[in-house]
Amino acid sequence: MTYPFPDDLVRAQRDWLATYQQLAQPRPRHTTALRRHLLRLSAYLLWHPFWSTPLGTPAARVELRRLAHRKGQRGTRAA
Fold first, then answer.
1. What is the distance between the alpha carbons of residues 5 and 18, in angstroms, rounded to a whole number?
2. In whole angstroms, what is the distance from residue 58 CA to residue 28 CA?
3. What is the mean pLDDT of the segment spanning 7-25?
4. Which residue, 1, 10, 23, 30, is CA-closest to 75?
5. Where are any strands of DSSP class E within 1-79?
6. SS3 of 11, please?
7. Long-range contacts of range 6-11, CB-CB < 8 Å, 24 or more positions apart?
8. Lowest mean pLDDT among 13-22, 34-43, 47-56, 70-79
């Protein structure tokens, strides 16, 4: 199923993945700032109004992560 995710939700999920990847690197710099950013993004993603709609199912959450991961990979290849 294709979900009509709002752009801000997809962007936040992509930012979350990128921040998480930065923290997963060996000896990352600015870990406190990255962790705070990850926490803010997590709260934003968790409480986004989209999840209050009938389309906001657990399957939609999984699809959002997959979509953000695919878009993130495309962005990395183009760089």
1. 19
2. 32
3. 97
4. 10
5. none
6. helix
7. 6/48, 6/50, 8/48, 9/45, 9/48, 9/50, 9/64, 10/64, 10/67, 10/68, 10/71
8. 70-79
Of 52, 44, 56, the closest CA to residue 5 belongs to: 56
Residue recorded with tokens 């921040």: 19
Tokens matching residue 50: 């989209």
- pLDDT averaged over the chain? 92
Query: Which pLDDT score is estimated for 75?
Result: 63
Is residue 79 pLDDT above 50, yes or no? no
Tokens coding 17: 């993945």
CA-closest candidate to residue 16, choices 71, 79, 57, 77: 71
With a threshold of 0.85, does the pTM exceed it? yes
CB 16 within 8 A of CB 41: yes
